[in-house]
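Slack export, channel: ligand-projects

TW: morning all. Re-posting the request from yesterday since it got buried. We need the structure predicted with the small molecule present, not the apo form. The ligand is adenosine-5'-triphosphate; the SMILES is in the block with the sequence. No rush, but it would help planning for next week.
GE: picking it up
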Amino acid sequence: MQEYASLLTFIALTGILAFSFYAVLIAGQLSLAQVGLASLAAFTSSLVVPADPLFGVIPPLIVGIVFGMAVGGLAAFVLGLPVIRLRGVFLAIATLAFAEMVRIFLINQSWTNGAQGLSFPKLVTPAIAWIALAVVAYWFWRMSGSRMGRAFAAIREDELAATSMGINVTRYRMTSFVIAGAVAGLYGVMFAHFTRFADPNEFSFQAAVDGLVTAVVGGTTMFLGPLFGSVFLSALPELQRTLGIDAGWIRPTISGVLLLLVILFLPGGLAGLIPRRKSASRLVEGADAVAALPPLPARGTGLLELHGLGKSYGGVRAVHGIDLAVAAGEVHGLIGPNGAGKTTLVNMVTGVTPPTAGTGTVLGVTLGGRTRAHRVARAGVARTFQQIKLFGRLSALENVLVGAYRITDDTLLRRLVFLPSARRKERGARAVASAQLVRVGLGEKAATAAGDLSYGDQRRLEIARALAAHPSLLVLDEPAAGMNHVEAERLSELIRSLAADGVAVLIIEHNVRMMLATCDRITVLNFGEVIAAGTPTEVARDPKVLEAYLGSEGDDADPAVAEDLAEAMEELVEVAEEAEAEAASVEAANTPNTAGAGTTDGPAEQNPEETR
Ligand SMILES: Nc1ncnc2c1ncn2[C@@H]1O[C@H](COP(=O)(O)OP(=O)(O)OP(=O)(O)O)[C@@H](O)[C@H]1O
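GE: finished. pasting the full token output, ligand included:
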């Protein structure tokens, strides 16, 4: 019986250690510092844990746990300051070095008794260990459905897309580091007070690998993962004993093979075998939540202004001397041959790439300097990407919910105590996301994983995700790529309806016909510079545009190609004239109703946090 009590406690303790790894893995980080943090917490707690209850009421173990978690969290924060920007294997190596440093430091201290180890009072029972594990699992369960949990998942799936939704990636990565440190501290204190004896060598590289394997085998995309991993791997030696196979190499071998199998065939770990609840991705009706969104800037308000903006990469001048202005309710097109600098320009506008020349402001945020993409996004700019950047393992609705990050509040604390307002807020966010998913025609596919959607659907999903941010300026980078004629036409209608709602749209697209029919104004780039700008008709008539697309001065060009292109351009002028005439007649019909639906005459929307 005693043996089983011990096994049960070890399962719980290993589960807690695995949760500490899980806490960083859910944000896409690989940290091996956890055992170092755990031993730091365990040994320092020996200095403060009293023999009797503190003030006569607080049990010594609680004092140790609170202290150990604080030490773990604080040490993780200090470690995070220099390493938080490292990625992948570099972060793993830096954190492993930290764990080794801690081990060597503790071995050389007299108060830890060095390698001989230190005795601890036995304060942890199996029940206490399982209660601690349940509390930790509860935290991660409630976190997974909150805005914070979604932000972690988004960072894990695609950092650039996450930051473009307004998520401060560095801050969240640090938060996950600190949470992981606190959980590691909890593990360290409980481990020492269960085994009654610990020496710094027990918190070695091998222990770090064990914890990591447990977390990864269990699964890193669902909160039950670490528990599964722990039950499975801790029970292995017991199974061995029951079967009478007593060889030390079996457990490491099996866990190694399992790790390999999980990485190759089961990216979600053992927990990934549990079917996901469809209800988590069910559409929610909620016209009131959509109606309660803040008003967009009044039509015609200047949202984007660029003066002489430029970007050089070493000797390569990707973009040079761009002057551009976009107002609320306007669809502004950017066209030009491959390599003209269009994507570089929108990357500067969205804060992804800092300019190297000129000035620019977007929704009150100055481009360059310390401005990052998440600040621009929070001011009201949402975007899609030339190379689709969805959160592949999340459902379509979950993707769009991340898009709604900017307009939703964090619900974690409320969710922890099951406050009804948490449900209400989550429902509101879901309603906004559902409305956008339906708007782009993907209502039926809400529960499908983004990675399983067709190419055209993925493009539409990216647009829905951007729209969920309720943006004042929507930046679309080649949204019609891979779409057929009918789909492109529908997209064009969607863009026009957004503009009618008062959204400004900056769009890059190679489908010139669609651009002429959709845009109010078009800027043409070639070799990083503006070569033409104006209404679709003006641009279509400009010979410089034809030359740019021809790729050479007319004389040198193949006459057949030149003739084809000239013909195409003539056709395009017709398309542009038709589109302009249509727009003029719609405007005339709407004249008494000057402001478009959904617009207001209020001041331009700005996020006070971002304009400080
Ligand atoms: N990170 C980089 N380092 C060096 N050069 C770059 C970088 N990014 C872009 N460039 C260069 O800047 C120029 C403009 O590229 P950009 O991708 O902005 O063009 P584009 O108009 O979007 O092209 P496409 O239509 O093919 O997407 C190209 O010559 C490209 O090689």
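GE: first-pass observations. Residues 313, 316, 318, 336, 338-344, 386 surround adenosine-5'-triphosphate (CB under 6 Å). The two ends are 63 Å apart (CA to CA).
TW: perfect, thank you
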